[in-house]
Specification:
179 residues; Phosphatidylethanolamine-binding Protein; mainly beta; 28% strand; single chain
């Protein structure tokens, strides 16, 4: 593979906002994803990890969730998961909540198509032999109960709308590399 410089994190160039806590029973900061969270075309289970958040501002009216790989060799990264309109009362998603059916999501929340063109979570599957990729799971605390976006928008468009309503953000970064 060609050597490429490390891409910046997706939130490094955006306005700074306060942070809160994002934890998981399945993933740890800076550690490789378990095989169950790897894409099925790479032999994995293609299940979204468990996520739990706390310490967000009292003014939070809703959340959005994203998972992004800035290291994908695309020039624009790769969106693995995007969920809009998670109610402010929800502070945890179970493993597998990112299934295509969305049945593990709370009422009112919905998933967008990822960059693989499917709805829901799509697991890690960087090119074989490429350096470890970062998978940045982010929960965005928002100042309004619902973003005015439809299910047909892209994760990038969701991110654009998040930027104007985010009051705090929590991130948890896992890695994965195919030998």
């Amino acid at each position: 593979m060609l050597e490429r410089p490390m891409a910046p994190g997706p939130y490094e160039l955006l306005p700074k906002v306060p942070s809160f806590s994002l934890t998981s029973d399945d993933i740890s900061e800076g550690q490789p994803l378990a095989h169950v969270h790897v894409g099925d075309w790479a032999g994995g289970g293609n299940q979204s990890p468990h996520l739990r958040w706390s310490g967000f501002p009292a003014a939070t009216a809703s959340f959005a969730l994203t998972c992004y790989d800035p290291d994908a060799p695309t020039g624009s990264g790769f969106w693995h998961w995007a969920v809009a309109n998670i109610p402010a009362s929800v502070t945890e998603l179970a493993r597998g909540a990112g299934s295509p059916s969305g049945e593990g999501l709370p009422p009112g929340a919905f998933q967008l198509k990822n960059d693989a063109g499917t709805v829901g979570y799509v697991g890690a599957a960087p090119p074989k032999g490429d350096r470890p990729h970062r998978y940045i799971f982010a929960v965005h605390a928002l100042d309004l109960p619902q973003l005015e976006v439809g299910q047909g928008v892209t994760p990038a468009f969701l991110g654009f709308n998040i930027t104007f309503h985010v009051i705090a953000r929590a991130t948890l970064t896992a890695t994965y590399q195919q030998a």
